[in-house]
Structures are given as C-alpha cells and as structure tokens.
C-alpha cells in the first residue's frame, strides 16, 4: 500500500503548494483584491474556514467521500494562497524563490529520513508537538511586546520543530491509518506534509527573508 499511496501523497501536496503560491502571487499583483482579502471581516472569515477544514478532515477522513476530501484540500490551499499574498508584498521575489528552493531541500531531506529510518518516531513526535505548543504560546505573548529578537528565536526553534515533524509525519503516514481508504489517505497525508512545508518556508522567510 505504501508504494501506491506515497506518490499520490506527494502529487497532491505539490498541487496544493502550486495553488497556494500561484494564488498568492496573483492576488498580490492586484491592489483591490489585496485590500479585500485583508479587510478585517474577510480575513477572519478565511481563518475560520481554514480551521473548520482542518477539523473536518481530521474528524471525518475515514468516512468522507474521496471527492469531498479533494475539494476541501484544494479549497484550503486556495484560501491559504489568499493570505499568502502578503509575502509577495513584503519580501523580494528573488528571496521568496531562493527560500522556496531551500525549503524544498530541507523538506526533502527530512522526508527521506522519516521514510528510511527504523527508529520509532512516536515519542519524538509527542515531544515536538509539545514544543510547538510552547512556540505558539510565546508567539502570542510576543504580539504584545513585539520583540524582534524573540521573534527570530521562535522562528529558528519552529524551523527545527517542523523539520522533525516532517520526518514524523512521513513515518506516520506509512505505518498508520491502514483503515483509511487509499484516496482519502493520500489527501490526508498530502495535507499534513503541505502544512509542514508551508511552516518550514515561513520560518525561513522570518529568518532570512529580504524585505522590499
């Protein structure tokens, strides 16, 4: 089953990333659409819809119609692209492209590591998710004090966390969820790896991105 599922997982992940970055670039080139996306009401709706999709996919992945899974994943990728348009406004395109390539290399290394290692990463995964929760809490705290040094440290820590989570998720997709239909598993796996890649890329931007 692994040999059949994993190519589909990576195919859907790449489709999701393509939709996200293409949408972000198109929106960033149109000032009217950009203002519409980041108006307070619209932005909150997008965030709520994203959370709803995450919850729905996690809760119903075993019983959901495969077509519905695909539509939800593509919708999530599109909505993320709307909010992603800000990076094309804030950062130089050369910086975005170079860090996209670096993120791809980092993601690939840890995806391979998670695929070939014989070590059970379950306990490591638990530790990583606890560390991620800590980063989220400190990030919320830093909203109020706006410390660039704290933001830099959090970005570095988050980068290493998502490197580990990438390896963990690859192993989890290969070893677990045997009771999920193949097409649904492909989408669910693509969704988890998509999130890992996006977070690695964002952390690299926060650390190395060159602003306009």
Mean pLDDT: 89
Radius of gyration: 17 Å
| Total helical elements | 8
Strand-residue fraction?
under 5%
Largest sheet features: none
Residues in helices, as a percent range: over 70%
How would you explain this protein's 3D organization?
The longest helix has 28 residues. The mean pLDDT is 89. The chain is an all-alpha fold and 212 residues long. Helices cover 86% and strands 0% of the residues. It contains 8 helices and no strands.
Q: What are its keywords?
A:
212 residues, mainly alpha, 86% helix
Structural topology:
Elements: H1 2-28, H2 31-37, H3 40-60, H4 66-90, H5 93-116, H6 122-145, H7 148-175, H8 182-208
Helix pairs in contact: 1-4, 1-8, 3-4, 4-8, 5-7, 5-8, 6-7, 7-8
Quick summary:
The protein is mainly α and 212 residues long.
